[in-house]
Amino acid sequence: MKVIEKNLCKYLLENKKDSSKVALYYGNTEYTYREIYYQVDTYGEYLRTRLSLGSKIIIHIKDQPQSIFLFLGAIKVGIHPIILNRNHNIENIMDTLEREKIKLVICDYNKNNDIRFIHIDNLTLNYEKTSAEFWAYETKVFSIFSSGSSGKPKLISHSFDDVLTCIKRSDENIMHVQESDVFYSQSSLAFAYGIVSSIFIPFAFGASTIVNTNGDVFEIVRTVQEKKPTLFFAVPIIYKNLIRMAKISDLDFSSVRVFLSAGELMPPKIITEWEFIFKKTILQGIGSTELLYLYISNTLCENKAGSLGKVLKGYNVEIRDENGKKILGPDKIGELSVSGNSLSTDIIDSNEVFIENEHVWLKTGDLVKIDSENFYWYMGRVSDSFKINGSWVDSNKIANILNKHPKVKEAVISGKLSKDEPTKIVAYIEEEKYISECDIKELKAMVSKSLGREFIPYMFYIVNELPRNANGKIDRKKLLVEINDTRAY
Question: Averaged over 207-223, what is the pLDDT?
Fold first, then answer.
């Protein structure tokens, strides 16, 4: 199959191939759209001469311009790219390599016993030989691994039309992109949040994008001061670290017109502090790898701090109980189901999907409620949530109360299951300063005063550091096993 209109690389770059506008910033290096087009051509030709149409490759290198050249170059010539987060151990997905018949892994380390692995520095690129032709293979253009928050990471494929849906919906609902915009995302290109924010949306509109060299808070601040991004994308921990830095020295983020957060619940305390320091709000939303990007979000026009926002135009959302029955009315907790045109066809046959009223629905595993103004509120995960006396525990509400204590850096609430006893509320706390038994009494009193004695955690585990997965989210599965350096009260 050859030279068709539905080639994602062609859509993003073809009409900009002669543009001298800066498309990509990486450290002190700049790439114009013309230069990116040439590099994509070169890397694509390298792959085309070594692999057959429809073959799959894995890109397993630190985020850098070459990640983009390889990704778009593969798509240009009909090769199916998968960007794997560099923090993921390749050994954990060796079964995927076999199952998906991966032909090539381009990496930045040496794996001498497997000829499928080639170091990025050892690619034999021919800059004299490129091709103007665009190729395509079926509808699955590229794949991304899910974060694994609900189990083992899954490989999710997406089509050309999935990407266009996300670009259109995000622009008209949240960003209102201009060609002069500069995008700056802190999420890895290996995640849906990162690749849509860093490549798809900015390139579609001829805007500019910034790729991190290492992504620490000092680089972020320096980059914002120098490059003046207008749209900023991050997860809550990044915003929290920037607030802590802003309390020490002045930070100028005035160039940014939209701050967006996704991937994990943003505590209202962080949003309030951010607004006080920077005089601008953070828009929080929720999305998934299965749908590629956000389907619920706050916007500049409609924003309620602490909420997930409202359903974005183009998506359908329902809340259902344990029996799959639709829940109507405000403030009733149930599992979130979503339907939309960007839903991957890879999961149609999975247990997480059902078909109703001619719509394909994804059961997200997220517990939410809706208020009287149609804002959605995150209540936890189905697998991590629990009931006491027949009622769902609002784990985030308890955590937010504990987070107000000056010695608490971050708190997570979970349910402790036992064969002999009812479910117990358990708090895991990463301390800002040493937490004593006297402090625990204060924490219990705070919860009791706000919610009632029945919501006081049965046990408090004090840890040096809360476990996180490769995506920076709290790894709740690890909370169920013994954590080193733990004190219990």
Answer: 92
| 308 has pLDDT over 90 | yes
Do residues 376 and 309 make contact, with C-beta atoms less than 8 angstroms apart?
yes
CA angle, residues 215, 252, 281, in degrees to nearest 5:
85
Q: With H, G, I as helix, E, B as strand and everything else as coil, classify residue 117.
A: strand
Q: What is the pLDDT of residues 465-484, one digit of tens each?
A: 888 876 677 776 676 665 65
Other CB atoms closer than 10 Å to residue 255's CB: what's the count? 15
Q: What is the rounded distance in angstroms from the CA atom of residue 246 to the CA atom of residue 177?
A: 28
Which of the residue ranges 155-164, 187-196, 222-231, 417-426 would you say has the lowest mean pLDDT?
A: 417-426
Residue 318: enclosing H or E segment and its boundaries?
strand 315-320
What span, in angstroms and rounded, lies between the C-alpha atoms of 154 and 36? 30
Burial of 189 (0-12, 13-18, 19+ CB in 10 A): buried
- Residue 331 tokens, joined: 């403030």
pLDDT of residue 462: 93
Hey, which of 39-43, 411-415, 421-425, 468-472 has the most confident mean pLDDT? Answer: 39-43
Packing angle of the helix pair 268-278, 395-403 (nearest 10 deg): 50
The answer to whether residues 457 and 397 touch, using CB atoms and an 8 Å cutoff, is: no
**Which stretches of 145-267 are DSSP H helices?**
160-170, 192-195, 201-204, 217-227, 236-246
The pTM of this model reads 0.83
Round to whole Å and give the CA distance between 472 and 93. 19
Phi-psi region of 365 (alpha: psi -120 to 50; beta: other; left: phi over 0): left
CATH numbers and ranges of domains, the chain: 1-138 (3.40.50.980), 387-488 (3.30.300.30)
Nearest alpha carbon to residue 12 among 291, 198, 278, 176: 198
**Distance between CA atoms of 157 and 141, rounded to whole angstroms?**
7
Rounded Cα–Cα distance for residues 411 and 440 (Å) = 13
H/E element holding 83? Answer: strand 80-83
Cα–chain center distance at 28: 26
